[in-house]
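PROTOCOL LOG
Step 1. Enter all chains and additional molecules of the complex.
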Amino acid sequence: MEKRILGKTGIEVSILGLGGFHMLEISKELVSQLVDIYLDHGGNYIETAAEYGDGESEKKLSYAIKNRRNDVVLVSKCHIRDREGARKFVERTLRNLKTDHLDILFLHHVTMQEDVDVLLKRPSALDYVFEAKEKGMIRAIGVSFHGLPDYALKLLKAQELDVAMTGFNYYDRFNFPSIFEEFLPYARSKNMGIVGMKAVADGYLYRSTEDAFRYALSQDIDIMVAGTNSKEILLKDISIVDNFKPMSKKSMENLYFRAPELNSYVCRQCNKCLPCPEGINIPKIFEYEGWYDRQMRDYKPHEAPDYALRERLAFWFGNQNEAKEAYKSMDKNYTDCTNCGLCEERCPYDLQVIDKLRLVHFKLANGDIF
Ligand code: SF4
Ligand code: SF4
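Step 2. Run joint prediction.
Step 3. Record the structure below.
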């Protein structure tokens, strides 16, 4: 399996990482078999979190790697923000994993202003993780988050870290474009290692896993982590990654046109509908809809499984307040639209822009409709 250097950490990692969340769903014996398959195919990065099953994932993983610790870049995450709490949790993680050090520890889901405030009000978990790094208990320190990157970015501007982890997929590319346009370039300018996750958008891109992996690994990232609870899925992921060839810009644009999940509802942020004669910033409004519900509630009929998946995932990232506040602060919105139709004529993806603006206005200004 192809390997890359994880930014300034200098750690060499396989481009497919094995995630630990789904280890909760299976026996420790099956976890052990999956780990062996993954390592035997050249993988070397395995990641879990203290929070997954309150340490259960870590315990199952320790059973699986008991004879192979040195073959693994071993990673866990700590969600505790105060110094003493972080110490207890990291020590518990080391006991659970039966190891004396972690290769990477992530400060887990930094997704709200409060996370940044508490971490930067020293002493905090930051002080503990740097002390642990000094003592050799942690080789590299990272930050992980979902959804809006603003808070993780604030943290990194105040405190340099080694690695960042977040989602990269061709669906949320259009809901959280600032991950690609602001966060990633900033992190790379600091030579941080970049760990990707959610290549298939929490399962939403299940029809197109090959495209999804290929797209994610073609971004400026070092590794894509995927969890699994079956040998079949793991072997499929390995085979996709083993045959990986970077996607050209043209192929990506082609994917934006043909992806069934994007269809004629998700705004591709191409700006081709602009300028609106009334000065409405159409793509920005649809970006805020992405923050709100990932543009999943389109109020069109869907097959039951698709509908259920959308309902489960739409509010996964919790940026609804930010979306409403941002929409409220706009000078112009749907209420200024004169129905001139220019935007719909210009949209290459055939979005029914006026109807969508109306829906977003209901979601972000009037309260969602059911
Ligand atoms: S239809 Fe409305 S949003 Fe579209 S260009 Fe005309 S005024 Fe702007
Ligand atoms: S042209 Fe269509 S896809 Fe492009 S930004 Fe405007 S609404 Fe979105």
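Step 4. Note key features.
The longest strand covers residues 138-144.
Residues 276-278, 280, 282, 337-343, 353-354 surround iron/sulfur cluster (ligand 1) (CB under 6 Å).
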